[in-house]
Specification:
This protein has one domain (3-271): Lipoprotein localisation LolA/LolB/LppX (outer membrane lipoprotein receptor (LolB), chain A), CATH 2.50.20.10. With 279 residues, the protein is α+β, with helices and mostly antiparallel strands. Helix content is 16%, strand content 46%. The protein has helices at 3-18, 26-45, 142-146, 267-271, and strands spanning 50-60, 66-77, 84-92, 100-105, 112-117, 122-126, 153-163, 166-175, 183-189, 195-201, 207-223, 226-240, 246-256. The protein has a 13-stranded antiparallel β-sheet with strand order 6-5-4-3-2-1-13-12-11-10-9-8-7.
């Protein structure tokens, strides 16, 4: 977004935020909400030309018992558009080793998702209706992993607010089609556009899940002949308030612009991870 346009946009947000209740124009608030969420998606899911990382996922019960998942993740951005492709390879524990999750993500339609289960040597397509189901028993959904289509929700700018010592935009997102929550409130960092907190409310208007960005690190990478810094949520938590269960995820060995190509994101590499990238 060009600097002069963004300055005008930020000014308009200030006007929206200071408008008395009942005076805020719904269409203006929704336009602002969409533009902020587009920048959030870029910052959280699409930085760089590609990305690779090691992931440790801890599934923690209400009484503190833990199950551990160790994964490797690859992500490629289409340079000609906004399509993306993902791989997530399961390394530990032994009962899930070799399982692979693949996503082809599109900006204007439902993503394609597959999972490979080595125990039965089966590649299974994940139906759109299952995108909101639990990702391998965690408190994250399949859709949470690669991102929700912005057009699937109505986004509304609510206000500007501090979260701790960080200035945020607060956005309400309401699904256009029925899913397990009816409202999501997001606190988006005004500088990095990373989501710092998200609250999910069910049909009874009760808070059911909470996402928090627990640690953010700047990851340096080469881009366009220069060194660039990518603010990255390296530790995050999703908590289910109904059950007390939570999932803590830590990203390590994060690298951007490593030279991934789209031709590895195929069924062949679901079964046989590319050793050059997965070690």
């Amino acid at each position: 977004m060009k600097a002069h346009y963004w300055s005008a946009f930020v000014l308009s947000l200030g006007l929206l935020a200071t408008t008395a209740p009942g005076e805020t124009q719904p269409l203006e608030a929704q336009k602002a909400g969409v533009e902020i969420m587009e920048k959030e998606q870029q910052a959280f899911y699409s930085q760089g030309k590609d990305m690779k990382a090691e992931i440790r996922m801890e599934l923690i019960t209400a009484d503190g018992k833990k199950r551990i998942r160790v994964l490797s993740m690859l992500r490629w951005n289409d340079p000609k558009g906004k399509d993306q492709k993902y791989f997530i390879y399961f390394r530990e524990p032994a009962d899930v080793r070799g399982m692979t999750f693949m996503v082809w993500k599109y900006p204007a339609k439902e993503s394609d998702r597959w999972i490979y289960v080595p125990a039965i040597d089966l590649v299974r397509r994940i139906a759109a209706r299952d995108a909101r189901s639990s990702f391998v028993g965690s408190d994250f959904t399949y859709e949470d992993i690669s991102g929700r289509n912005i057009a699937a929700d109505t986004h509304t700018f609510l206000r500007e607010e501090k979260l701790g010592d960080r200035d945020c935009y607060v956005i309400e997102s309401v699904p256009k089609e029925p899913i397990e929550y009816v409202r999501r409130i997001s606190w988006i960092n005004k500088i990095t556009f990373l989501p710092l907190k998200e609250e999910y409310y069910d049909v009874q208007k009760e808070l059911t899940r909470v996402f928090t960005a627990d640690k953010i690190e700047d990851i340096a990478a080469a881009e366009g002949g220069e060194r660039k810094s990518f603010p990255t949520v390296s530790r995050r938590t999703m908590k289910n308030l109904k059950t007390g269960h939570r999932t803590e995820v830590t990203f390590t060995s994060v690298s951007y612009n490593v030279g991934l190509q789209d031709n590895i994101f195929t069924e062949r590499y679901l079964r046989n991870p590319p050793e050059r990238w997965i070690k």
